[in-house]
Design a protein that fits this description.
It is built from 7 helices and 7 strands, in the order H-H-H-E-H-E-H-E-E-H-E-H-E-E. By secondary structure, the protein is of the alpha/beta class. Strands 3-2-1-4-5-7-6 form a 7-stranded mixed beta sheet, with helices on both faces. The chain is globular and about 55 Å long.
Length: about 220
């Protein structure tokens, strides 16, 4: 079995465990994304993970695990902002998995957004917009139903910097490792936590949580 075959099998098993029904074409796109990360990582140091095989669990499945828990799963016009997207997680995997969603990937690092633009060009992702911008200065044409981040800031700071971007009925969906007791305790009274999902990511023996926050 080649490395590519092994990665495809690992991805397929992980998607089955997460109960995500993606097409073969979507799986091919996800692995093509991993190949681009590995290629660019040699020059741009996008991630500390060097092995493409580990990227399947730590970048693809880790980004897709919260998908069933996102608000508006059936909403075809949902707009999602991925803040501090870096090399595109969770935004790129979400965009591949849900072509009906509109993903906006924001990062102030020009090298990383250059990489993201190359990804969307090579993978022909028509539902992704890349933004080279500081989040507090960003003024979108319309607010977002979901604002997410994978490793951007503590909850209170994340919400403070993005509160002008959230739709009135929208929610913040923050990806965290261990249960963020202290971060939740430090949230302002203007927002409230409505749920914290405990995520099981195939191939990762570590805690993962998705924190849902709305305006109070």
């Amino acid at each position: 079995m080649t490395a590519t075959d092994s990665m495809f099998s690992e991805l397929a098993a992980g998607l089955a465990e997460l109960k995500l029904d993606l097409s073969t074409a979507q799986s091919v796109s996800l692995l093509a994304y991993v190949a681009l990360i590995a290629k660019w990582n040699k020059t741009y140091s996008l991630t500390a993970i060097r092995e493409p095989e580990r990227m399947v669990s730590h970048h693809l499945l880790d980004s897709l695990a919260p998908l069933p828990h996102f608000k508006g799963e059936a909403d075809e016009k949902i707009r999602i902002l991925d803040v501090g997207s870096g090399f595109g997680t969770p935004g790129i995997p979400l965009a591949i998995a849900r072509p009906d969603w509109q993903l906006f990937l924001l990062d102030s690092n020009h090298k990383k957004t250059t990489f993201l633009r190359q990804v969307i060009a090579e993978l022909k992702l028509t539902n992704v917009t890349v933004l080279t911008e500081r989040v507090e200065l960003y003024k979108p044409e319309a607010p977002f139903q979901i604002i997410t981040s994978r490793a951007f800031a503590e909850l209170a700071e994340f919400i403070r910097l993005t509160q002008h971007l959230l739709a009135p009925e929208g929610e913040w969906a923050a990806l965290k490792g261990i249960y963020p007791f202290e971060e939740i305790a430090h949230l302002p009274e203007t927002v409230k936590v409505i749920a914290v999902d405990n995520l099981k990511v195939p191939g990762i023996n570590a805690e993962r949580h998705l924190v849902h926050v709305i305006k109070a």
